[in-house]
Amino acid sequence: MRKIRLLGLTIVSLGMLLWFNMRSLPPSIPTVTPSPPKTIRYLERTLPQSVAHILLIPSRFLITPALSFKVSTVEEFAQKHRAIAILNAGFFDPANQKSTSYVILQGKLVADPKKNERLVNNPNLKPYLGQIFNRAEFRRYRCGQTIRYSIALHSESSPAGCQLVDAIGAGPQLLPELTSVQEGFVDNVNKRDALGSNQPNARTAVGITRDGSIVLVMVAQKASAPNNSGISLPALADLMKTLGVQKAMNLDGGSSSSLYYNGRTFYGKIDLEGNPIKRPVKSVLLVQEN
Fold it and tell me: If we measure between CA atoms, which residue out of 256, 263, 261, 232 comes closest to residue 50?
């Protein structure tokens, strides 16, 4: 009987001790999902053969293409459109200053590569015109009250319930896979590589993350080695992947590579003396307040 009474007292004592310990613990902290960033972030990343200038742009900002009647520098585009940031975009012919990429603004086709006579009449490009006219483009849709961005081939239809507002063509697509051959940039049979895909060069790209944020990248050559610096397209795709990008496409690169942000311009191509090459461009991507 005494043993039973002692056992009962022991159980009661343990219960009281546990109750006091529970009361002394701090209250549980609720899990809070971090809100997406509200400001643009600029990153500079030093790579083995280049320097990457990166803009991480939250979805609250508006990204739209812009086209100039005559070629203009990114600073001139910034002044005209009062943009926060500018990245060069589509391909063009420096000889006649006409776009070789499709550009759609506010639902209207404002640049049609099929009307560029130097492009369509070039005998070396005739076998590839079908692919050239169906390259990747960065798109802005209006889906009800929501704005969505995507990367799709020119021939692809808009998603159900969405209206295509803007588009700028370039290519090739980088992610989820590199499509240089499908878009006519590379022809392994005839040993054609229009962009020098596997060689280092100044490059630009646009990407879309899972949450709909936009990533703009301009990779510049190093002044210490202008002839052997930059980034290849496969390496550019890998870089975009490290930034959380799910869809990405290459933009006009080389001497066109230029990024304007916060009053400063970064150029990608370097001459033999180590000076940046400042080349005017035909079309750009604008970053503005929504």
Answer: 232
Neighbours of 115 (CB within 10 A): 11
Q: Give CA 185 to chain center in angstroms.
A: 19
Burial class (CB in 10 A: 0-12, 13-18, 19+), 156: middle
Q: Is the pLDDT of residue 102 over 90?
A: yes
Our count of domains for the chain comes to 1
Cα separation, 92 vs 279, in Å, equals 12
Establish if 29 belongs to a structural domain. no
> Within a domain: residue 26?
no
Q: Is residue 191 part of a domain?
A: yes
Burial 162-174 (b: 16+ CB within 10 A, else e): bebbbbbbbbbbb
pLDDT tier at 225 (50, 70, 90 boundaries)? confident
Residue 265's domain comprises 36-289
For residues 116-139, average pLDDT = 97
Of 79, 93, 144, the C-alpha closest to 122 is: 93
Query: Is residue 95 within 8 Å of residue 273, measured between CB atoms?
Result: no
